[in-house]
Structure formats: C-alpha cells, structure tokens
Amino acid sequence: QTFTAWCNSHLRKAGTQIENIEEDFRDGLKLMLLLEVISGERLAKPERGKMRVHKISNVNKALDFIASKGVKLVSIGAEEIVDGNVKMTLGMIWTIILRFAIQDISVEETSAKEGLLLWCQRKTAPYKNVNIQNFHISWKDGLGFCALIHRHRPELIDYGKLRKDDPLTNLNTAFDVAEKYLDIPKMLDAEDIIGTLRPDEKAIMTYVSCYYHAFSGAQKAETAANRICKVLAVNQENEQLMEDYEKLASDLLEWIRRTIPWLENRAPENTMQAMQQKLEDFRDYRRLHKPPKVQEKCQLEINFNTLQTKLRLSNRPAFMPSEGKMVSDINNAWGGLEQAEKGYEEWLLNEIRRLERLDHLAEKFRQKASIHESWTDGKEAMLQQKDYETATLSEIKALLKKHEAFESDLAAHQDRVEQIAAIAQELNELDYYDSPSVNARCQKICDQWDNLGALTQKRREALERTEKLLETIDQLYLEYAKRAAPFNNWMEGAMEDLQDTFIVHTIEEIQGLTTAHEQFKATLPDADKERQAILGIHNEVSKIVQTYHVNMAGTNPYTTITPHEINGKWEHVRQLVPRRDQALMEEHARQQQNERLRKQFGAQANVIGPWIQTKMEEIGRISIEMHGTLEDQLSHLRQYEKSIVNYKPKIDQLEGDHQQIQEALIFDNKHTNYTME
C-alpha cells in the first residue's frame, strides 16, 4: 500500500496511476515513466509492443537507468518483474525509493537513512513529548508526524490539543492534513500502525521521506514550475523571488553581523546572578530569536532552489545573487554564527562553573574566616594581661601550663590560617570580583595571627622570666628562713642569757662568768656577719623586686621572722652586752671585797682561835693542878683574866669583821676553818 501510494504520488504528475504494483509495472512503460518523473531525465524510447520481449526490453531499460545512478541491483532481473514477482517488484521499488527519495538526503554530514533520521530528530527536538530514535516504534503515537507538520506549518495543526494516549487521532490527523495541504498521499494505515508491535520500517521511511521533500522545497519548486502558464507571470514571479531573496539574504546577513559580536563578547560578570541572566538571554536567543532566523535561512534556501528550478525549467539563465549574498556566503556566515554560538555557550558554561567555584570558595573563605575570628576574639587581650605580675610561684606555674595548652591550641589553628590564605590566593587567581575585601580580611587575619604569635612568645618569655625570678626569690626566701630561724633562736638565747640573774659566791665563779661572757662577745662579729648575710638575702629579694618590678603577692611563706624583728633583737642584744659587762664588773668588785673580808677575818680568826684554845687549855690545867696557895692560884687566875680582858678588843674587832661578812652574805671562807660561832 505504501509503495503504491508513493508511486502514484509521482505518476499523477504525468497524468497516470497504478492500482496493482506487481501487475501495472510488468510491461515496463509506467516503470520508465516513474523514473523519468522522479529523476527529471529522459530515458530511452520505450517499446510499444505487447509481446514479452518488448516488456523485458522496457524493464531492462528501466533497470539499466537505475544501475547508471550507482545502484547495484542484486538478484533483480527483468524477467521476474515481467512475470509479476511480487517480492522482486517490491524490492525494486524500495531500491528506487532509497536512491531517489532517501539517498540524496543530507543533514549535518549524514546522509540517506541516518540523514533522514537526524533531520526528523532536529525538527522535532523542541517537542518534549516526541523522541524519534528509529523508523518504527518512535512513530506509533503519531506525535512525530504531527510535530513535523506543526514545525513547518504550525497553522495546520493545533498541536497543544494532541494527547500522547490517543495515537489513532494523532495518526489520522497527520495523514489527513498531509494529504489535504501538503500533497502527500496517505501511504500508511493508522490502525495497522497501532495494531502492529513494530511498524514496517521501510513504509515509515518512505512516508517520512515525502515530508522531507515536501518541506525541503525541491518538490514544491517542481510543482510550482509545472503550474507556470505564462512567461510574463513566471518572469514577474522570478523577479519577486530574486528581490525577496536579496532582501531576506541582506536581512539575515545583517542579523548575523549584529549577533556575532554579541556572541563573541567575553566580558565576564562578577556575580552568578548576572551570568545566569546571560545564560537566560542566550537561551532566549536560541528559543525565541534564532528559530525564526533558521526558518528564514531554510526559506532562503528553498526560495533559491525554487527560483533556480523555475529559471532552469523556463530555460532562463541561473540567478546570481549580489556579491556576498550567495547561498555559500550565507552558509559561511551562518557557520561563523554557529561557531561563535558554540564558543559563547562553552564560555558561558565555563564562566558559570568558575563563578560557582568562586562562590563556593568565597563562602568557604567566609566560614573559615568567621570561625577563626570568633576563636581569636579576646585572645590578644588575654595574652596582654599582666596577671603574672601579682601571682605566686604556684600560680605562675599554673599560668605556664595554661599558656602551654594555649600554644598547642594556637599551633592547631595554624592549618586553618594557611587554608584561609590558600583560598584567598585561589580567589585572586580566579579573578574573584570581591578580591580586595577578601585580601583585606585575609591580611587582617594574617597580621592578627602574626601578632598573636608575637604576643604568645612575649607572654611565654614574661611568664618564664617571672617564674625564674619567683623561683630565685623563693630560693632566697627559703635560705633566709633556714638561716633566720637558728639566728633568731641564737639571739633569743643570747638575750635570755644576758638578762639571766647570776648568783656567785666566789671570785672564781665570777671570773668564770666573765670568761664565758668574753667568749660570747668574741662571737658577736661573726653573729653580726650572719645577721648582715641574712639581711643581705632579704635585700637581694628587695633588689630583684625593685629591678624587675615584681609585684610580690605576699610575705615569705617559709618564716614569719622579719628583718625588722632580727634588727630589733640584735639591737637589744647589743644593748644587753654592756649591761652584762657592767653587772659582771660590779659583781667582780664585790667578790674581790668579799675575798678581802674573808682573808682579813681568816687572818684574825687563825690567830684568835689558837689563842683561845691555848688559854682554855692553860686554865684547864690550872684548875686541875692547883699548885700553890689559893692566893697564888687566885692571883694567877686574875692575871689570866687580865690578859683575857686585855685580848677582848681583838675579839671585838673580829666580831666587827664577822658582821661585815654577814652583811656581805658570805657563807664560806677557805682561808680559815674557824667560824665566828
């Protein structure tokens, strides 16, 4: 059916038709006529006889003509055609269709079947519900045929009302419109297409090729040429076509001339929004502005081909457009346009990718910078604190450990600062529009980071210096305490000894105390040196405090003994020494006086005592012996009495010495064994 309809679409131009394809081509006459119509060339004169040999001759002439067009006819012979072999006849017709209807189709460096498929894909590309991938199932819903018609003649079909789920209506609509308005006969049956799992590819290709030729303008040019009846009308129409071509070519070239600079403009935008607007403008250009120009270009080529065909059919010279307005010139200009368009699209996409990368980097920079700035907030003030000036040694050590932890934290943030600098560098290399503010912020972060490093080092040095000073002071405090305590005990013992009340009874005892006191006095210079050394330790602490401006948080933690107390006690010791000297001197003088009294008493007692003893013995003997008369004895006793009475002053004197000894509280006397009693 399809092949019969296709053959009739050409044979009717010669005023004839066929009904049965295998019967009507048996004599070769209509076959030769068909080839003349579709090729536009004259074949050899046919044989008019009715005999089999005449028919074979005519068919051979047709096959020879086909072969002369570069077609290899495999296993197709004139005898089979004359005999009405359906398979061979249909194969021959398909070969003719391929050669004269499909082979010459050329679209973007593809030809024949691939070219026809590509043409269909290009023409139906704007229709989202149409996806032409082959010449069988892609056409079952009928939307492909409707899309081809609507693309070229949108007034013939209301495409918006078509539904993909109603293929029968779609197919019949396309077939009816094509037959009525495009002079394309019905070659396919809608119900057969729908009812077949895989429609016949050759039938679809044959029918679609009619669309291609109908819309490409070649067939229209031939049909229009056949309608020309009068030379004047042809000339006028040709002149009008020439003017239209010239105007259309001028307008199209002018549009290309204006458009190419826009497409070659590579001025970058700073923001993604601006680039998206450029991309949207480019899409509008492709969707709204370019399609009419594509139509104009196609129409221009159609008009040119139509004009040339008309001129050729009228035996008129070929049309030569003005210089620079040849079809080749327009194609070259159009090629330049599409090249610029391709370059512009690539540039747009690259720029958008670049800006996306820039936006991503800029956001990453802002996030990292914000995190870093949040972390550094208050760190400079913290590092500039002078809290170590009033801290104790233990507090300084705690501050040092805390500072070491901060240094570790600071080192851990080094990577983030390097990342921030690297991102800023990349933003500069990618020509980020806001690079000045990024650089300023990055520079501020880097400067602050350097300052933090310097402050960190400065604080560490200050802490270590303060720790060393406080350790030195602590050692001095400890040494001071170790030496001040025994020295203080010594002074307290010395004060106690110097103020101790001594009780002596002999000159030897006072001499012993005096000797001990002199020995104590001999130790005073060394003690004073020790005192000076102890005070020197304290003075060294004071000197360190004054020299290095150390604010001492408290007193010596190892002792409560102050230099003032040491000086006070030392001064007291110095005052007690001369007092002790005086007391010992006075006691020594008293003991000397006592010794004189002892010696004086002893000397007298050692005389008086024996005298009394002697007299007692003499009186005792007198009373025992009783020699002489009583008067003699009495006289003798009276003489003793007189001598004893005369001795009495010495005893009284001894009594006076004894009284002095008692008053002097002398209780022993080594110079005599006699006591007053």
Give a quick precis of the structure.
The protein is built from 22 helices and two strands.
How would you characterize the overall build of this protein?
- GO terms for molecular function: actin binding.
- Residues 231-258, 396-430 form a coiled coil.
- Keywords: Actin-binding, Coiled coil, Repeat.
- This is Alpha-actinin-1.
- Residues 1-101, 110-216 form the Calponin-homology (CH) domain.
- With 677 residues, this protein is mainly alpha-helical.
- Among the domains are: 1-103, Actin-binding Protein, T-fimbrin, domain 1 (Orthogonal Bundle), CATH 1.10.418.10; 237-361, Up-down Bundle (Methane Monooxygenase Hydroxylase, Chain G, domain 1); 484-595, Methane Monooxygenase Hydroxylase, Chain G, domain 1; 604-664.
- 75% of the residues lie in helices and 1% in strands.
- It has 22 helices and two strands.
- It has helices spanning 2-11, 21-24, 29-39, 52-68, 78-82, 86-102, 112-124, 143-152, 167-181, 190-195, 201-216, 218-227, 231-264, 272-313, 327-376, 379-383, 393-412, 414-429, 435-499, 507-548, 563-625, 630-663, and strands at 106-107, 110-111.
- It has a two-stranded antiparallel sheet with strand order 1-2.
- A hairpin with a 2-residue loop joins β1 (106-107) and β2.
- α13 (231-264) packs antiparallel against α14 (272-313).
- The longest helix is centred in the C-terminal third of the chain and has 65 residues, at 435-499.
- It is rod-shaped.
- The model is unreliable at 218-226 (pLDDT under 50).
